[in-house]
Amino acid sequence: MRVRDDGGVGEVTAPPQHLVFAYYITGHGFGHATRALEVVRHLVAAGHDVHVVTAAPEFVFTTEITSPCLHIRKVLLDCGAVQADALTVDRLASLEKYHQTAVVPREAILKTEVEWLNSIKADLVVSDVVPVACRAAADAGIRSVCVTNFSWDFIYAEYVVVAGHHHRSIVWQIAEDYSHCEFLLRLPGYCPMPAFRDVIDVPLVVRRLHRSRSEVRNELGIADDVKVVIFNFGGQPAGWELKKEWLPDGWLCLVCGASDTHELPPNFIKLAKDAYTPDLMAASDCMLGKIGYGTVSEALAYKLPFVFVRRDYFNEEPFLRNMLEHYQCGIEMIRRDLLTGHWKPYLLRAITLQPCYDGPINGGEVAAHILQDTAVGKKYISGKLSGARRLRDAIVLGYQLQRAPGRDVGIPDWYSLSEKETGVRPAHTSHDMNGNAESSFEDFEILHGDMQGLTDTMSFLKSLSGLAGNDPRSPEKQTRERAAASVLFDWEEEIYVARAPGRLDVMGGIADYSGSLVLQMPIREACHVAVQRSDPTKQKQWKHTQARQLANGGAVPVLQIVSFGSELSNRAPTFDMDLSDFMDGDKPISYDKAKEYFSLDPSQKWAAYVAGTIFVLMTELGVRFTDSMSILVSSSVPEGKGVSSSASVEVASMSAIAAAYGLNIAPRELALLCQKVENRVVGAPCGVMDQMTSACGEANKLLAMVCQPAEVKELVTIPTHIRFWGLDSGIRHSVGGTDYGSVRVGTYMGRKMIKCAASDILSESLSSCVPMQSGDPNPEEYEEHGVDLLKSEASMEYLCNLPPHRYEAVYAKDIPEVITGAAFLEKYGDHNDAVTQVDPKRPYCVKAPTRHPIYENFRVEAFKSLLTAAKTDEQLSALGELMYQCHYSYNACGLGSDGTDRLVNLVQEIQHRKTSRGGGPSLFGAKITGGGSGGSVCVIGKNCLRSSEEIFEIQRRYKAATGYLPIVFEGSSPGAGKFGYLKIRRRSA
Q: For this structure, is 690 an active site residue?
């Protein structure tokens, strides 16, 4: 059934009998309560009893409905999406809180709700959109209906992908609960919700207006000609500091949700907590806030331009945003501009919009009419299938719909040519259906460098050629990131291109920061970065960048970055800043301030990997950038797979910038500078092997490097009979994660304990041996340890310099399994690691993280020696055994994962099974790589067809068990130093 386009169904009149509704409202945000309010109001007006089950404040309902037929029961039955702040959803915390709120007490909840529903003699259960309410209704023998624009199975589906399979049952249970629902009343701006088979579309549910624009303004003492913006973030931004100069001259700002103690400037007006927002919105000229159903629906209904700030990881947002933009009602503000007060260009542009929504807004009345009919027995739908049977669509189809190219939501709609631009070169090539130019890289003249036959570099130049022929004002649909990139460069001027690969950690891994020998292979997948420098007065600028310059009084050097591939991850694909933001007077700001700068907006934190290279060059080498800079980043190194996507971006970015500015930086020095980007600007406590491999590696060779701090020992040619593969577990890995960081802290704690123990033994030995004369009966103790050896261990800089036998003989027995941060700090003072901190409240594993690098260094040395041994199965078996030992040592440190363990176990099964073909195995070993806790495994095997077939078999078996098809990394390519750089310029027409 579909309601008529005009939404008309007539007044909601009372049926012959009195009805009782139980209306469950989710614990996420005010928007659900405010839209439910409008439906409840119509049901109560028709004479029915409505019992609202909610965690929302009572005033949301009681200020609008004063009737004995309204009953409010304060209960939290689901938590929605847990927000780390007003704009960021914490995905793992959301799943964990839902588990505690709705899964652990599920049986008790169902029992309580069934008893309560029977006690009030409910005729119908309505859910917006609490999953367990549908199941409780079914258990009580009562029909149920959902009213929503999204469902929690779809919202949580992506969270599960990130958090790991241990939360997957949550999504299945939610979908199964929804399957008990009679049908769905679907609101505009809806997400894919395949868990509901039967759907009825209803108009926007919007709260009615009580007072006119002039009445509201008169009450607030605001003249009709004063421009007003309403600041509405759902009551969460009470602690944000607001400043007078943030508003255009003569403007006023109405602030929702400010605390009683929050002091506001004179051009900001604090609204009461229970202020009726629709009236205030209709009296304003625009709104600044975050996207939610309530704000979007009321902005559309009252034709209020909406300046919105993106929320991270709330999957409802793209669909509501599309509706806003379709009706010319929305403009995105970059979060950094929100927090730093650069509001004026956005507000001034907002009041030029002409919102054009003209659809019905009586969804509350329509929904109430349908609910009443359903409660008296009217059948709107037929039979239904199980929600769990349709969950495949919710997770796969819905996720793909959201993430498909062209669906990205990170680019403000004004990323087009600024007013000073006269146009771009007309397209001179044909376009395919996706808007990609069918032109060749030969459109560019290579003034310096060589592509070295790398097909990915050819493809990158082809993509640049396609951008050069793109007119952003063309009606032809294109992704927003391509629209932004198409006006990034002056195609008649020189562009510098660098390339840096990811890496496969064959041996060494987390022992790098302890000084180990490591063996790393640069992989085929790589990051390309294109850089162009330009005079600040001539740089092509996005409109908001130009507006900021005008507001600041003139042209200053500006950095503009576009990163391709943002639709595959929840991040904004563009970043811009004034390069003067990196300066404090005539000196660069501190690393801590730079880190804080990039942390302001989580959706743009990725820019720290790129812009951070500029800051490190300024800080470490004293480079001053007086030109503007435009940067395009395009990486085929997948993120979160443990193959060092971050290092490839850093190395490619710094290499391209160095080329553009004529900086002669050796690959080793460049890698060390890039490590500073990750450690000091991004804040990830990684070692240096990733950057060294990306910068110094060579194709089909293992980079053998001693990380003390970064000495390339040699490039070891991979024997022709040996092959390495990477297999992605599908579990996201991050060296910025707490597991990696806590293991690193534990390792440094162990080093400090060993150094202190060596000092104590040395002191005791010296004190007991100073008076020793010839013939002393006890010289053994002095000789056993040796003064020189103890001195070196007491001053040891790198834990890997301690041989395993010394560790076992002297120190192992005194290293605790676990110690709290407070106990360690009290006894030892500090762990002496510049990039991590000890949390006094946290317990740290020490023994396993200390033991791992000591033995790993020995394993890597043995592995390197074995590579040149005779080509036998025994050689491969020994190499594989060393990899297995490394893998289980990672697990002992707490850096394993179910996915990587499963892949290693599959390699072992295939290695040890008997085959009808005869002969020995083709695969010989595997280990988790890099920082652990997910990511990829490295597999060693014979370089033969059979081993490749077995790798594909592992792929299939892993997918059958987990639903995830692993990416296979195979092949190698040169590092950034070997590639050099390209200097290109577009050929004349």
A: yes
